[in-house]
C-alpha cells in the first residue's frame, strides 16, 4: 500500500509540477485539472465501495442458500427411518465440504476482481508516467528548464518506472497464486 501511495505521490507531483510550469498565469487550467483529478478519485472510491457491497451481498446470499440447503437436507434425513444418524452426519459433512469449497471459490473470485482493479491502476500509472515523459520532452524542446531541473525530473520518472515495474511483478505473482489455487479447487 505504501508503494502504491509513493508511486501515486510521485506521479501527482510530476503532473502538478509540469502543469504549474505550463500554466503559469493560467489558474483556470490548474483548477480544471485539479477538479478532474478529484472527480476521478471520487469515482474510483465509489466504484470500489459499490463492488465491495455487491460482493458482501453475494456472499451473504450464498451463505444463506447453503444454510437453507443444509437445513432442508437435515429435515429430509430426519423424516427417514433407519440409519438416520449416519446419513445426517454424512450429508452434513458433505454440505459443509461443499460450503467450504464454495466459500474458497468466492474468496478466489474476490481476489481475482481485486487484481483486475490493481491492473487498471497499473495502466493508469503507466499512462501518467508516459504523459510526464512527453511533458518533460516538450519542456526540454522549448528550453524552459535548466539541465539540473531536467536531470531531477528524469530521475523522478525513472524511480516511478522502477516502482511501477515492482508493482506489476507483485500483481503477476498474485495472479499466478490465484490461478494455481483455482486449479486445485476445480480438481
Question: Can you walk through the features of this model?
Answer:
The protein contains 4 helices and no strands. The relative contact order is 0.11. Helices cover 93% and strands 0% of the residues. The protein has one domain (2-186). It is elongated and about 85 Å long. It starts with a helix and ends with a helix. It is mainly alpha-helical. The longest helix has 59 residues, at 84-142. The mean pLDDT is 80. Helix 1 packs parallel to helix 3, helix 1 (2-22) runs antiparallel to helix 4 (147-186) and helix 3 (84-142) runs antiparallel to helix 4 (147-186). Residues 122-177 form a coiled coil. Residues 26-81 have a biased composition (Basic and acidic residues). Residues 25-81 are annotated as: Disordered.
List the helices and strands and how they pair.
Layout: H1 2-22, H2 27-79, H3 84-142, H4 147-186
State the main characteristics.
elongated; 0% strand; 4 helices; single chain
Shape from CA axes? elongated
Can you count the beta strands?
0
Overall tally of domains: 1
Helix content: over 70%
Count of DSSP H/I helices: 4
Gyration radius, to the nearest Å?
Answer: 26 Å
Largest sheet: none
Please state the structural category. Answer: mainly alpha
The percentage of residues in β strands lies in under 5%
Element-level helix/strand string? HHHH
The end-to-end distance, rounded to whole angstroms, is: 34 Å
* Low-confidence blocks of residues: none
Kindly report the average pLDDT value: 80
Region (Disordered): 25-81
Keywords: Coiled coil, Signal
Coiled coil: 122-177
Biased composition (Basic and acidic residues): 26-81
